[in-house]
Amino acid sequence: MLRPACKTAVALTALVALGCLAVSPAAAALINLTPATGSPNSVNSVTLSSLLGSSDGIVVGDKIFTGFSYSRTGDMPLPDNVNVLGFRDPDGNWGVTFHGSFIDLPSGAASDAFIRFMVEVDAASQAAGWRISDAHLFMSGAGVGPNSFFAVDESFLGRNETLNTYISTLSGPQQAQLHDSVVFDPRTNKLTVTKDIFALASNGGFLPARATVIDQSFSQERIPEPAAMALATICAMGVVATARRRSSR
What is the mean pLDDT of residues 204-216? Predict the structure, then answer.
């Protein structure tokens, strides 16, 4: 059993952490797009254009998404034509879905787009020691004609981990990887995510290179804060010392 002084120190540490962490998301106007129980996506959505150039963001479960930016070339969709939904993957991890006609038509040069955003664990979960441990990327509604290619490459600012999904007929029979995942070491409470969406349809064909749904989720694990661990160690040492003194009497 913890001594009263130790209990007070632990409680004060948690309160201070909560107060500091709450400052960041409070500055943004957050739209709750958490899916209902049993549903992979939220009922409502927002356009990507509504999230650009402002502090607005979305909250999905215990994840907060802000700082959205978007750029496109070729046949990729305008931000008004990309919907953002809350997402929950089959393992229950929270994330976002980008729904739009990401496409390259079979004429001219390739098409490309990038989406960038920040994701962080909400203040209460951060104070409890939860950190992002994994990222998962899913691509759906994908198709290509002969000699064509579509890919989503993902990177994280300041980190070496990457993700890749693709569908290709450039070297003969169709090859595809529609899901990828990565483990972060060390764990983190915030990431800056960049998705590069590349499409190349054969000039001699008649089918576009396309995908319509790009899903992203993040899993997490609980890591005790160093201060809390130190306090727990000190308190445990105190309990052991007290028990030894009592047993020696």
Answer: 95
